Give the backbone structure.
Amino acid sequence: MFLTIAQGLGWTVAISVISFLIGSVLGVGIAFGRLSRRAYIRAVARTWIELIRSVPPLVWLFIVYFGLGELGPKLSPFHCAIATFSVITSVYLGEIFRGGYAALAGGQIEAAKSIGLGRGDIFFKIVFRQVFRTVSPSMVAYAISLMKDSALASTIGVVEMTFRANQVTQATGQGLTAYLIVGFIYLLISLPFGVWARHADQQAHKRYVVT
Amino acid sequence: MSNSIENYLKTEKITKSFGKSVAVDEVSLGVQAGQVVSIIGPSGAGKSTFLRCLNLLETPTSGEISIGDFKISIGPGHKYPTAKELAVLRRNVGMVFQSFNLFPHLTVVENVALAQRRVLGRGKEEARDRALQLLDRVGLKSKSQEYPGRCSGGQQQRVAIARSLALDPKVMLFDEPTSALDPEVGAEILSVMRELADDGMTMMVVTHEMSFAKDVSDVVCVMVEGRIIESGDPQKIMSEPGHERTRKFLSAVLGR
């Protein structure tokens, strides 16, 4: 039974990792939008974030899979799950990135300009590296919750772990065992990341936070 | 001050307005190579804004800046300087801020080496050697591997000076470099600046340190409400100011 369920792990990981990666890239765009000098861009970004966050992920999943499927060519459940979770991830990470940027010690960008650094260098060498260090614990925490949310994809028929546990339950009637196994596997994945995130956070503080 | 041909740094009618308020009002001045010019005046007079216009951290509303043969005109009818022009300007004009503004995620030596590598294209070894040499000059070679968070304010400011000098600028701008420091620590910074001046660095210093303005600078400019109301020999301005407003300002700061 364990093996049958664990075979769904690949899909769980695929949905989580791919959505997280796409969401991270889009999230940078969201953060830029929120920090834009132009008021209307900020307004659009803000509205978009509120819109995405105010509707439960499950409902978005249904809108994308059943709703959009009605309009055009039907995408596979897997692709729909990726699309939905990527967009949801992007708004949460976007807000995390924005917070990290706000926490940058002031005056650094001016100083960087004053020594002739170009925009690319300022972003990658100064801003990105610090923001990344500040937000990585929050990013990991979000990644864990995304991995858990990916179980929702079972409802539209992605054959990931929870879906398999469902099948096993229906076939054998041993729901308790099946779902405990799924829960245990989620736990096994989540725990190390959580521990690592806490550790990374402490390291970052030790390194360059003024005491 | 005359804008003679030998002026190394020259501004022509630099104006900066924020909406309707004019922070800097047609300021023209020239600094000869090797000169130290101090700008003094009451808070809110536009001293820092003017200084920040010189390396375009603040974009003037209009005016002209020239450094040696390099000239930038800004205002109606002129295009905003290209990234390349900005880079040339900023490579030649160093700036030290009131609040140090070091990069906290880089070690002291990395702070000083970064722009050498990215802007001047120096190799890793060369940039590092030059950084260590400059850190030695400001007395901080022993701190080179520390992060700025572990350095005192005075040490951070000295690193900031080294970081600026690393590009071998032709002109150094100092924006109230000691205001965020204890007087005793401020004195350390002033002595580093004095050494720089003695070595022939062209400097423009916005400061509230009257003794520095008097003893080290070749020229003092008094700025009030966005204008330079008088400028000239520091001793003379300090002892017999020509302008009523200068007198008032000096008696306020010196009388404390």
